[in-house]
Specification:
It contains 13 helices and 21 strands. With 402 residues, it is α+β, with helices and mostly antiparallel strands. The chain has 2 domains: 253 residues, FAD/NAD(P)-binding domain (3-Layer(bba) Sandwich); 140 residues, Translation factors (Elongation Factor Tu (Ef-tu), domain 3). Bound molecules: dihydroflavine-adenine dinucleotide (FDA).
């Protein structure tokens, strides 16, 4: 049997639910379809189960895109303060973890339940476990303004506005697919190649042993690659490097690139060593380094980088030794062999080219009634709540026009 809706949204994730709630509360008749057995699975998993739902300091420069201007309009019209007001309306307790990152005090399900409640208030219908087999445009629309027809596992559907909110391909076990990219290509939109972002590095060269041995050790570092830098924590893992600093820089890294890591950004080691050589000549270099790092780090670092100095005292260091030690610590060059990929990535970089999409409404310029929102678009945020803020803002922009 043919069913007709004013608005159909594909994807019951962050962007899809927000769009459904807002469009339905505007009085639109909305159906959300998802192939998963549960709505908002990534929301539930996000922020270590506490959902970093936005950030106090949302700025366009916290987003990567081939068109860095595209995100500005939507982000300025539905801001972090609007989302915080919604969270406050529901009395959801939250806190700032650091650098403006807002997390739920309790569980990420607080945010998902809020969105589901908002959908219910507007009367939006959410239909899960539904696969979409085919989408076609109805030429010139029909008398009722119906412009798209969908063949789904639950029958034939028609709608006036169709919103693609299927996200990116990271974490396929949560239902992620590249479906949105296929639909974009079907309607003659370009899709920039995608790759994993906000993802740990795999190290397989001579630094592998060091990473393995230091697995679990965390350090505050300054990391840089391709003229972009972050000052955050790094975590050694048994497969390579992770932690916020690495996740952030991974979005700027391309295969074959070196990453430079300053393991002691708050100090000038070259000057400090010279000073300490006079003040504490008998202290071993190993113990001295352990004061900044851990004993294990100091031992392994010296074995690997300066084997001739493993039992040296500060007094025994030459000027060249001190410069060499400082350079290795402040400019550690690492060449990742790859990333952990979509299996663990928080986001996908790339996606639907925004050039043919209205930055005001998220509607495809040459295809009235077809909208793309959220991560499926070529807009990728830094770590820290920026990706959800993009999902909320792009969803609201579309909801006003569907
Ligand atoms: P989202 O992925 O949320 O939703 C897409 C929906 O489409 C899913 O429900 C999926 O099942 C459905 N779908 C896909 N293909 C389909 C098909 N063929 N047919 C039907 N339905 C289909 N961001 C942030 O700001 N703060 C954070 O704390 C985190 N933490 C975090 C942790 C982890 C582990 C991950 C993987 C990601 C994050 N993120 C994050 C990123 C954030 O989750 C992500 O950017 C948003 O969920 C994107 O919202 P979307 O609605 O675009 O996609």
């Amino acid at each position: 049997m043919l069913q007709k809706y004013e608005v159909i949204i594909i994807g019951a994730g962050a962007a899809g639910l927000m769009c459904a709630a807002q469009a339905a509360q505007r009085g639109r008749q909305v159906l959300v379809l998802d192939h998963a057995n549960k709505a908002g699975k990534k929301i539930l998993m996000s922020g270590g189960g506490r959902c970093n739902f936005t950030n106090y300091y949302v700025e366009p420069d916290r987003y990567l895109s081939h068109n860095p201007h595209f995100c500005k309009s939507a982000l300025s019209r539905y801001t972090q303060w609007d989302f915080i007001a919604l969270v406050d309306k529901y009395g959801i307790p939250y806190h700032e973890k650091k650098d403006g990152q807002l997390f739920c005090d309790n569980k990420a399900s607080d945010i998902l339940n809020m969105l589901l409640d908002e959908c219910e208030q507007g009367g939006a219908r959410i239909q899960l476990k539904t696969s979409i087999d085919q989408i076609e445009a109805i030429p010139d629309g029909n008398d009722e303004g119906l412009r798209y027809q969908l063949q789904t596992s639950s029958g034939r559907l028609q709608c006036q506005s169709l919103v693609i909110a299927t996200g990116g391909p990271s974490i396929p076990t949560l239902g992620a697919t590249g479906f949105g990219y296929d639909i974009a290509r079907q309607f003659n939109l370009d899709v920039f190649p995608t790759r994993a972002g906000l993802v740990p590095f795999v190290i397989t060269d001579h630094h592998k042993g060091l990473c393995e041995a230091l697995s679990g050790t965390s350090l505050n570092v300054a990391v840089s690659c391709n003229n972009k830098g972050f000052n955050e924590d790094l975590l050694f893992t048994h497969r390579g490097l992770s932690g916020p600093a690495i996740l952030q820089i991974s979005s700027y890294w391309n295969e074959g690139d070196d990453v430079e890591i300053d393991l002691l950004p708050s100090q000038n080691l070259s000057e400090l060593l010279r000073e300490q050589q006079h003040q504490r000549p008998k202290v071993s270099l190993k113990n001295w380094l352990a004061e900044f790092f851990t004993q294990k780090f100091a031992e392994l670092w010296l074995q690997q980088k300066h084997p001739e100095l493993t039992s040296a005292t500060l007094a025994q260091l030459s000027g060249a030794d001190m410069d060499h030690i400082a350079a290795n610590i402040h400019q550690w060059q690492v060449k990742p062999s790859g990333t952990e990929g979509y299996r663990t990535a928080e986001v996908a970089l790339g996606g639907v080219n925004t050039d043919l999409i209205s930055s005001k409404s998220m509607e495809v310029k040459q295809q009235p009634g077809l909208f793309f929102i959220g991560e499926v678009l070529d807009v990728t945020g830094h770590l820290g709540g920026f990706n959800f803020q993009w999902a909320w803002a792009s969803a609201v922009a579309a909801a006003e026009c569907v």
